[in-house]
From TrEMBL, chains A, B:
Transmembrane segments: none annotated. InterPro entries: Asp/Arg/Pro-Hydrxlase (IPR007803), IPNS-like_sf (IPR027443), Pro_3_hydrox_C (IPR008035), Pro_3_hydrox_C_sf (IPR037037). Residues 29-174 form the Aspartyl/asparaginy/proline hydroxylase domain. This is L-proline cis-3-hydroxylase. Residues 184-280 form the L-proline 3-hydroxylase C-terminal domain. It comes from the Bacteria. One of its GO terms (molecular function) is 2-oxoglutarate-dependent dioxygenase activity. It comes from Amycolatopsis alba DSM 44262.
Length: 289, 289
């Protein structure tokens, strides 16, 4: 199952503006998984495993998620969550914002015990932000406000906002005990309307010549800029038609050409960590050598 | 006048640990001047122009600065500020932390009306963080905890923490109406003991061959990674013996080699903005084209 549009709601701009104002006023904190991003990434939990407004970690939770104090401050978003979606499968609802930031290509849920098919993540952009994109395997998407997306977090995906303009969004996670149909997440069956045509980003061709230019970063890479180059490489696939995971292969090759075994090992480790087998709470440093 | 050590105090680790705990608990917010840094940069005002704990902007203020609510929560640091330094020239006192972050080379106070010689900035690192450095013109410094530094913010300087380990510090700004002697900032005259030998970082030679490698970034630069490359270039001088301001000259040259006039203009603008003549509240975007 790949990322696709599940339905669309018409957002009430006036009511939404008040909620966005509250979200903007919540201070940013250091994020879980912040090895995966640079720049400004702000997650605010509305429902989560504990009901605590500072608890940002997704985890398996028996029963349904608990509203945090933030949910009370965003009445319009609360109404959307409670009227559009089925509450008893809801495991987490959070707003997410990116500015001048990239979330590097990775797979989610690999740290959880259960079969990834149990998990179902939806994502809805709340503000029109033309320079903000998602990627999923070989596709780059510009999500339009109000579109409810299934986000296939178990396959390789990434996100970016090339600008400093806010890209507030609502991310809702569901989990099921066994098989399910995607329409089961909706309390309001009229919202479920799959098959809409998404705004796919037309990317430039990725050529061997471009690949060679990227690999010339072996002349510049050092341990002190290893992390910067990882983020730089992670952005290429948003503009050029190449798989997001190739960023890691380039990083490994660049490190090999630079002939620094520690960098090669770290490049292979971050590829493994992001793409394959990270463990819950397993932290990874891009800057310790 | 260049950056130099003014004196040193013995930090009480036990009392300090409690204050550091409070500072770590204060949420990070988006910072004024955040065009100048990437990564994690956290400033907490203890004394400022308004006494408001969220007011992070340095500005000229008649009389002395006002304590914020944060000052009450860090009794040891409050005691240091109030017993070591003269209160009536104090314009701002704030804690500053950097993690996995660089503050790009720049000059301060250029946006203020008055003669820069009126301003006197001191800086004291509170935690030992071996991968954190300051630079000032042709010198890179590793500040040791308890050293009270005059930081010559009116000349070209930059800062970095290559690691994710906390580098909490205390930055205190003074201003005078006319001529003054640096010892006038001290209420406790026994602390003033200039002339100590700093820990200067021995850097690698910067060669023409290295410069050519840096300029090969013209093969990779695009508008989408322009900002990333600026930060990457800003780090070079911490490891190699080259002036911090050269980062901007390389950026201009790389943009010219890449033959993108808009990038050339932006590179020249950021050089001007950081090094010469930025205006107060004048914001600059590295990502809008």
């Amino acid at each position: 199952m790949r990322s696709h549009i599940l339905g669309k709601i018409e957002l009430d701009r006036t009511r939404l503006a008040k909620d966005l104002g509250y979200l903007a006023s919540v201070p940013t904190v250091e994020e879980e998984y912040d090895e995966f991003s640079n720049g400004f990434w702000k997650n605010i939990p509305l429902w989560n495993a504990t009901g605590e407004g500072e608890d940002r970690l997704y985890r398996d939770v028996p029963g349904s998620a608990i509203a945090t104090e933030h949910a009370a401050r965003v009445p319009y978003l609360r109404e959307i969550v409670q009227t559009v979606f089925v509450g008893d499968r809801l495991k987490m609802a959070r707003t997410r914002n990116l500015k001048n930031a990239v979330v590097i290509p990775h797979r989610d849920f690999v740290e959880l015990d259960q079969d990834v098919d149990r998990y179902f993540r939806t994502f809805m952009v709340l503000e029109d932000s033309p320079q903000a994109f998602h990627s999923n395997e070989d596709t780059v998407i510009h999500m339009r406000p109000g579109e409810i997306w299934f986000l296939d977090a178990a396959t390789v995906h990434a996100a970016i906002n090339f600008s400093e303009h806010s890209r507030q969004s609502l991310c809702i996670d569901f989990a099921f005990d066994g098989g399910f149909d995607e329409k089961e997440i909706f309390a309001d069956p009229t919202v479920y309307d799959p098959g809409a045509t998404p705004e796919i980003v037309t990317r430039k061709p990725f050529t061997q010549e471009h690949r060679d230019r990227i690999l010339s970063l072996s002349k510049v890479i050092e341990r002190q800029n290893f992390r910067d180059l990882l983020f730089l490489l992670s952005k290429v696939h948003f503009t050029y038609d190449v798989h997001p995971g190739d960023a890691y292969d380039w990083l490994v090759e660049i490190a090999k050409k630079a002939d620094d075994e520690k960098m090669v090992v770290k490049a292979e480790q971050i590829r493994e960590f992001a793409m394959e087998a990270r463990a819950l709470h397993d932290r990874f440093s891009l800057t310790s050598w």
